[in-house]
């Protein structure tokens, strides 16, 4: 089940509708040393309140040149997670918005044996 905040209310999506996609904003404020994670169904505007917000100083790990990656897990069961697009900004400005209409579709779901 996916969850997100829409209009500052918790919104839960049923498992079967999760295939339509989720978009997430992962933002780091270097001045406040805070990481915010905001999620919503694909195509919706960014909610005003993050789902997660944590004070975290990333200064010791962020470098001028570095690789970044993504990881996902649901626990003991196998699952596929697809990142179909992302944008990034390192200069303090918001990352450029994604045009959802030009992103690729996820591969078809595999059938369980």
TrEMBL record:
Database matches in InterPro entries: ConA-like_dom_sf (IPR013320), Legume_lectin_dom (IPR001220), Leguminous_Lectin (IPR050258)
Ranges for domain Legume lectin: 18-103
GO MF assignments: carbohydrate binding
Keyword tags: Lectin
Pfam family, one: Lectin_legB
Family the UniProt entry places it in: Belongs to the leguminous lectin family.
The name this protein goes by in its record: Legume lectin domain-containing protein
Species for this entry: Linum trigynum
């Amino acid at each position: 089940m996916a969850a997100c905040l829409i209009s500052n209310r918790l919104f839960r999506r049923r498992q079967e509708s999760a295939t339509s996609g989720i978009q997430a904003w992962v933002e780091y404020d270097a001045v406040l040393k805070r990481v915010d994670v905001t999620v919503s169904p694909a195509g919706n505007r960014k909610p005003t309140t993050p789902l997660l917000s944590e004070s975290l100083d990333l200064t010791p790990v962020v470098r001028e040149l570095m690789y970044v990656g993504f990881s996902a897990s649901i626990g003991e069961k196998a699952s596929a997670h697809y990142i179909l697009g992302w944008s990034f900004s390192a200069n303090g400005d918001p990352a450029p918005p994604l045009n959802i209409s030009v992103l690729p579709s996820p591969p078809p779901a595999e059938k369980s044996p």
